[in-house]
Amino acid sequence: MATVRIPPVLRARTGGQSEVEAGGSTVGEVLRALTAAHPDTEAQLFGADGDLNRYVNVYLNDEDVRVLDGLETAVSDGDTIVILPAMAGG
Questions:
Q1: Beta bridge partner(s), residue 35
Q2: Domain 2-85 fold
Q3: Cα–Cα distance for residue pair 45/38, rounded to 1 Å
Q4: Which tens digits make up the pLDDT trace of 26-76?
Q5: pTM
Q6: What is the pairing mode between strands 19-22 and 2-5?
Q7: 79 Cβ partners below 8 Å, 6+ apart?
Q8: Which residues are CB-neighbours of 40 under 8 A, at least 6 positions away?
Q9: What does the pLDDT read at residue 86?
């Protein structure tokens, strides 16, 4: 199982939890397990096409998955996935 760190803006959708455990062999599978357990997170994380929303950044053990294999990045037990929504403003 991987630990998924939930940003404050999504915690209301995970029952207030700041971290959840989710299974899967890839980042995509882990995030899908998260959305299966907490359906209100799905629209925040994924677009209608099934890809991550462009304003959602995901890190596996402090490495941006976009520079790895994206949602196909392999995950091992004990890994940490961080969801970090992009912030806009000036």
A1: none
A2: Ubiquitin-like (UB roll) (3.10.20)
A3: 11
A4: 999 999 999 999 999 999 999 999 899 989 999 999 999 999 999 999 999
A5: 0.92
A6: antiparallel
A7: 2, 3, 60, 61
A8: 13
A9: 82
